[in-house]
From TrEMBL:
It is an enzyme of class 7 (translocase). This is Nickel import system ATP-binding protein NikD. Its EC number is 7.2.2.11. Residues 6-248 form the ABC transporter domain. It comes from Kibdelosporangium phytohabitans. It catalyses: Ni(2+)(out) + ATP + H2O = Ni(2+)(in) + ADP + phosphate + H(+). Pfam families: ABC_tran, oligo_HPY. It is found in: Cell membrane. InterPro entries: AAA+_ATPase (IPR003593), ABC_Ni/Peptide_Import (IPR050388), ABC_transporter-like_ATP-bd (IPR003439), Oligopep_ABC_C (IPR013563), P-loop_NTPase (IPR027417). Its main location: membrane. It comes from the Bacteria. The complex is composed of two ATP-binding proteins (NikD and NikE), two transmembrane proteins (NikB and NikC) and a solute-binding protein (NikA). The lineage of its organism: Bacteria, Bacillati, Actinomycetota, Actinomycetes, Pseudonocardiales. One of its GO terms (molecular function) is ATP binding.
Amino acid sequence: MVTLTVEELSVRFTLPDAVVAAVSDVSFSLVPGECLALVGESGCGKSVLASALLGFLPGNAEVAGRAMLGPLDLLTATDDVLSREVRGRQIGLVPQSPAAHLTPVRTARSQLEEALRHLHPAESRPAADFVAARAGLSPADLDLYPHQLSGGMAQRVATALALAGDPWLIIADEPTTGLDRALVDALVAELRLLVADGRAVLLITHDLAAARRVADRIAVMYAGRLIEVGPGAEVLDAPRHPYARGLVDALPDRAFTPIRGLPPVLTELPPGCAFSPRCDRVAEECADRPPLTEDHGHAVACHNPC
Ligand SMILES: Nc1ncnc2c1ncn2[C@@H]1O[C@H](COP(=O)(O)OP(=O)(O)OP(=O)(O)O)[C@@H](O)[C@H]1O
Ligand code: NI
């Protein structure tokens, strides 16, 4: 069985006058048949983490750590190896804002067929209609041009493209953005089917309610670090990190209280806990960064957890 094992992954962007600590010491693993949701506020490093796994970072990025996909380290693999063996074949990406990734002048069918030609030899190539059906699209949907697709349908076309090479791991980056409730429900069901089918899903989202319905485990990210990781129901019903609790309390169907203060600037992170300036449980020891410590499959990085 293939697994993805990420160990101490860090990404730094060098700007002319500063260094952005976008992802710091992130470790997790993912196995087929499992969905891990990565949640956290805008700018905390979720998409950068996904880009690092696929070798899509820009030239000013420096990566450290390991991301083992079976025997292959994704962080040191060449672009050639990633494009021949990994992208689309082992890992399918449903990008953030999928409509922007479709070619405007060609139908969804023509784009999916091209992906299938690229990824499969003629004798074992699945039909476009078959792949589209797995993403919840009918054959007639495939004959539309991108401008004719609603947000939900563009999302499905992007999912069909991500599934074209039959990857075992799907990374879906903010797939619920802009979808109404019925489409979110449909997407949740589709993602669960992919997991039931033995695929792994890394779901990147702000949407805690969707994460709860799809994910087996939830990883909460703050300022580039994982600060709480555990079974979905535990993390959302009994969050232990004050930031995770704050995210849950900010939900409209909970206390609806926003977390006070602003997310930190990633070019000037404090040496201790990055959440401490906003935290109502802050204590003296928070000047030293708390390690992510696991107890019964639920890990938290806090000196004074809830
Ligand atoms: N090429 C780059 N150069 C410098 N900084 C960058 C670059 N790409 C991303 N960043 C910074 O890295 C941080 C993490 O960005 P990222 O896109 O991963 O956030 P995110 O968690 O996906 O947010 P969102 O929910 O808004 O998509 C942000 O502060 C962003 O400005
Ligand atoms: Ni993002």
